[in-house]
Design a protein that fits this description.
The complex is a heterodimer of chains A (298) and B (477).
Chain A: H1 10-13, H2 19-33, E1 45-51, H3 63-69, E2 73-78, E3 84-90, H4 105-122, E4 126-132, E5 136-143, H5 148-158, H6 167-177, E6 182-188, H7 197-208, E7 212-219, H8 221-224, E8 232-236, E9 239-246, H9 252-271, E10 275-280, H10 285-297
Helix pairs in contact in A: 2-4, 2-10, 4-5, 6-7
Chain B: E1 2-4, H1 7-16, H2 18-26, E2 28-29, E3 33-35, E4 51-52, H3 58-75, E5 78-80, E6 87-94, H4 101-115, E7 124-129, E8 133-136, H5 143-152, H6 161-166, H7 168-173, E9 180-187, H8 198-205, E10 211-214, E11 232-236, H9 242-250, E12 254-258, H10 263-266, E13 276-279, H11 285-296, E14 300-304, H12 312-317, E15 320-321, E16 333-336, E17 342-346, E18 353-354, E19 359-364, E20 369-375, E21 380-384, H13 399-407, H14 424-431, E22 438-439, E23 449-450, H15 452-474
Classes of the chains: A alpha/beta (298), B alpha/beta (477).
Chain lengths: 298, 477
């Protein structure tokens, strides 16, 4: 049995239970799927001692050294991680779309975000959560403490797609809160009203700051053109008043136009140093993450 | 052979099959609204604005069509007849008195053609009727039967179509093994056979239409005329005779006008006995003698208020007791020749009585005799107490009937009833409506296997499967 064969299809993940269990399952599958690397283990990395100053936390006083030297020293540690991570979730109405029998894009995005949060928090990174749909919102500030994962997962569970919004504003707000270099992961279908120009600009702005920027595109097979729907009167969930009679499964131009949009967007993002990760909801989440990480490692 | 008691239902079922087919194929409905976030990349397809449904549910379509066909077939009451015999016929043959010899021969020929197969075997049922009906046993319906019937000739009793109609159900029930039955009536279809209430009887006797083979009505045959002889009439008239000739011609007579003198020279002496002599003018002595001679040999002599020649034999031959000439200023009036024949407008009349041994054929309004008849040895002499032409009795519509009644004056009252063809309404009632061929199992005549109920059970089963399949298709997955 190959590793990928053990990955659970997205529509089966929901049966596992809450998002915390789903995230653990995904991470477990992910960790068994990536190329093994030495585990550094957890624990605090001691850096140096310095003289105690008023206001220092007494928990960090080295009492053993005090016993030997009769002077108060406090221990300083290397930061376990100096990375602030932001997960920026798309909660616009278009993310509520699902293929027949499949999971909605918003739910798939939540799986991915939960798994990433689990991984990053496990690595000591501080993870924050932002979303944009009806309006851009900073939901959780980056934290790395224990219990933060639970808060993140709760927020992800509560997300309900609605409205129409651009990612640019949310990304700018995220960038404004980051005091130092960080990582921004955008999970979205990247369907922007301005053909993604604002999105590309915002991401490029973050990248110019030195942040690591990753754009994860989530689409269904029907949207991507792999299994286009049959004839119908179609409308964009974010613009329901506009209808269009069409037959996508008999329209080769539909697939061509979808691919041209996303290929163009990916090219523009890569030109600006933004990592572009295409995902489809029919693909197991672990498999997608493993493929992505392995591709990064080369 | 497969038969259907009500094939219209089968046809209706077959037509009804087209309904689900049409609904599956050509039902047009607006397409449903479908959300698609990438709708911006779609190209408009105007053909899709109104979507044509495709027969995607072929199993359901087939089941629905099968259901309708089975229901239609079940209601058509099918039956399997193990011994196919095709269409059998019930022949109602009129042997009443209004059928003459030629008609009888023609009727027998038609019946024989309808009932006998190429080997002389019976293919149907024969019913002979006049006032009553006789259902001839099928074993007796052989060529010999028709020969004997032809030799016997038609009967003398009047025809009664009610009797014929009453015999149809029993005759059709006797046709076991036939897949369908037709009824044919071979008759003169004269008014005498009609009776009140015949319409209702007709409806109950046979559900389909009756095929009619019409025989000629026996024309007014003068007494003594052999039935097979051609009918001739001789009008002895000095002047005129035109109206009488026309009326007799309408009755089918070959008419010849003869002057009161010279009868022998004017007529064919080889066939003197056939025909009727209408004497409108006083004949001379030789003509009178010749007329009497021919009357004795079988001819009919009809004398209309004509002075008698000086001949003892002539006067004794007349069925009249009294003067033979119209009395001046005498009252004419209306003359009755039977209950249904009235001739009015006579300007004058001969006053007299019916001679001994003679019978009164017609009477005036006051009951005095107007016409009398006397049968001679083989012929007949009729005297009419008014002048036919010359002013006493104007020509009118009843003229032909009156002449026919006079020519048959020596026959019995029943036999001399003037028949007329059934009018179109009565004929339509008798013929009926609907198919002429009725499935035998509808009449309870067939001994086949009826399997309509099995088809109905199959239809119920199909309906059950269709319901389950449709529910399964519509249930959310």
């Amino acid at each position: 049995m190959t590793a990928t064969a053990a990955f659970l299809p997205p529509h089966l993940l929901e049966r596992i239970g809450g998002l915390d269990l789903i995230a653990k399952t995904i991470v477990r599958g992910f960790q068994s799927g990536i190329h093994r690397s030495p585990q550094h283990g957890s624990g605090e990395d001691f850096a140096k001692h310095r003289d105690y100053q008023q206001g220092d936390d007494v928990r960090y006083v080295d009492w053993k050294l005090f016993a030997r030297t009769d002077r108060l020293y406090v221990r300083e540690f290397e930061e376990r991680s100096n990375l602030q991570c932001w997960l920026v979730m798309d909660t616009s109405a278009s993310m509520d779309y699902a293929d027949p029998g499949g999971v909605p894009k918003s739910r798939y995005a939540a799986y991915v975000a939960a798994a990433l949060a689990h991984l990053m928090l496990g690595a000591g990174d501080a993870v924050g959560l932002a979303a944009f749909g009806a309006e851009p919102r900073l939901l959780l500030a980056p934290r790395s403490r224990r219990g933060h994962l639970h808060d993140l997962l709760m927020q992800l569970e509560r997300m309900s797609p609605s409205g129409s919004g651009a990612a640019g504003a949310a990304l700018d707000r995220v960038g404004g809160t980051m005091q130092r270099r960080g990582r921004v992961v955008l999970i979205s279908d990247l369907l922007e009203e301005d053909d993604g120009s604002g999105l590309v600009t915002a991401l490029a702005r973050l990248r110019a700051r030195g942040d690591e920027v990753i754009a994860m595109r989530v689409l269904t097979a029907a949207e991507s053109g792999d299994r286009p729907p049959g004839a119908g009167l179609f409308f964009d969930p974010e613009q329901p008043q506009t209808e269009l009679p069409a037959t996508p499964d008999a329209d080769a131009g539909y697939v061509r136009r979808v691919r041209a949009y996303y290929d163009g967007l990916a090219d523009r993002l890569r030109e600006r140093g933004v990592e572009y990760v295409p995902l489809t909801t029919s693909q197991p989440v672990e498999e997608a993450l493993v493929a992505w990480v392995n591709a990064r490692r080369g | 052979m497969l038969t259907f008691a009500a094939p219209a239902f089968l046809l209706a079922g077959a037509l009804a099959m087209l309904v689900p087919l049409a609904l599956h194929l050509i039902r047009r409905r607006p397409p449903g609204r479908v959300p698609l976030p990438t709708a911006r990349f779609l190209a408009e397809d105007p053909r899709n604005a109104v979507r044509v449904s495709r027969p995607t549910d072929l199993p359901l379509l087939v089941l629905r069509m099968l259901l309708l066909l089975l229901v239609g077939a079940a209601f058509s009451r099918p039956a399997w007849i193990p011994a196919p015999e095709g269409t059998s016929t019930v022949v109602l043959l009129d042997r009443g008195g209004v059928v003459d010899a030629d008609g009888w021969r023609a009727g027998l020929s038609a019946a024989r053609q309808a009932l006998l197969g190429p080997e002389g075997e019976a293919r149907g049922e024969l019913v002979l009727f006049d006032t009553g009906a006789v259902h001839v046993p099928r074993a007796r319906v052989r060529p010999e039967l028709f020969d004997s019937l032809l030799a016997a000739g038609p009967g003398r009793a009047p025809s009664d179509y009610a009797a014929a109609l009453r015999a149809i159900p029993a005759a059709t029930r006797a046709l076991r093994g036939a897949d369908s039955v037709t009824v044919r009536m071979i008759s003169t279809l004269s008014s005498a056979g009609w009776s009140p209430g015949l319409g209702a009887l007709r409806e109950s006797a046979w559900p389909g239409s009756i095929q009619i083979t019409r025989l000629p009505i026996a024309r007014d045959t003068a007494a003594g005329d052999p039935p097979t002889s051609s009918r001739r009439a001789y009008v002895v008239a000095g002047e005129g005779g035109r109206f009488v000739s026309a009326a007799l011609g309408a009755l089918g007579y070959q008419v010849q006008v003869i002057p009161p003198t010279g009868l022998v020279a004017a007529t064919d002496t080889t066939t003197p006995d056939s025909g009727a002599y209408f004497v409108l003018a006083q004949p001379d002595r030789s003509t009178a003698v010749e007329l009497l001679s021919r009357t004795r040999r079988g001819a009919a002599l009809i004398v209309a208020s004509t002075a008698v020649v000086d001949s003892g034999a002539w006067s004794t031959m007349m069925p009249w007791d009294g003067p033979f000439a119209v009395r001046p200023n005498s009252a004419g009036g209306t003359m009755w020749l039977g209950a249904d024949l009235r001739v009015g407008g006579a300007a004058g009349r001969v006053e007299g009585r019916t001679a001994e041994g003679a019978r009164t054929v017609g009477a005036w309004d006051d009951g005095r005799p107007a016409a009398t008849a006397l049968r001679t040895r083989t012929g007949c002499t009729v005297y009419l107490g008014t002048a036919l032409e010359g002013g006493d009795l104007p020509f009118q519509a009843e003229y032909p009937a009156m002449l026919g009644r006079l020519a048959r004056g020596c026959e019995s009252q029943d036999a001399t009833t003037i028949d007329r063809p059934l009018d179109s309404g009565a004929l339509q009632v008798l013929r009926g409506r609907g198919a002429s061929s009725i499935a035998a199992n509808r009449l309870g005549a067939a001994g086949g296997i009826a399997f309509g109920r099995w088809l109905l059970a199959a239809a119920l089963l199909v309906a059950l499967i269709e319901t389950m399949l449709a529910y399964r298709r519509r249930a959310p997955r």
